[in-house]
Amino acid sequence: YADFLKALACFTPFIGLTLEYSRNYREKKYAVNKARDTESRIESLTEKNRAAVEKLEGRIKGLQEAEDFHETLSAGSPYGMYIITDGRLAYVNRVFEGLTGYTAKELTGSKADALVSPDDRDEHGSYVQGILDGTRDEPCRYRIINRKRQTVWVAETASKIMHSGKESILGCVVDITSARHAEEMLRTLSPSSPIG
Predict the structure, then answer these.
(1) Rounded CA Rg of the chain
(2) CB 173 within 8 A of CB 96
(3) Is 93 in contact with 173 (CB distance < 8 Å)?
(4) C-beta separation of 82 from 92 below 8 A
(5) CB contact at 8 A, 170 and 158
(6) Of 87, 109, 115, 88, the residue nearest 173 (C-alpha)
């Protein structure tokens, strides 16, 4: 037994080294596995982020196409177009600028009825409310006062839309001042005149 203990004592440093090596090996293996797991999670998150970025890029492209379409449609329109949101002008096209004499920058954010003749504000206000309520869809005729303080008769059609996540009104107006003056002139002519 004493010889066995002597022999065992000779191997004790090796056993200690072996146990030390085994512990270091397990720690290193654990660290490597943890690093691989972390790398795998990072790759997974990166792939998810890449997919989310691609989805957002697709939505941005779709919004840009919609905006380009809207701009092309309204810029090429022979009608003045505007959008009212929360009682204020949110958008106007160039034709509307021409009718009013104001720039889009000046008009955007202003009260929607600021251009409407005071004599027509009540009627136009009820027209707009009827569009929002869905109780009115026929065109409306009213007067606006342009930048030069001139009265311009317009005919308007409007629809309820969603704009920037809010219930809004898309309106199209056309200048009917000449037609209105012609109507008034015909009314004033007597039936006995050479034209009547």
Answers:
(1) 39
(2) yes
(3) no
(4) yes
(5) yes
(6) 115
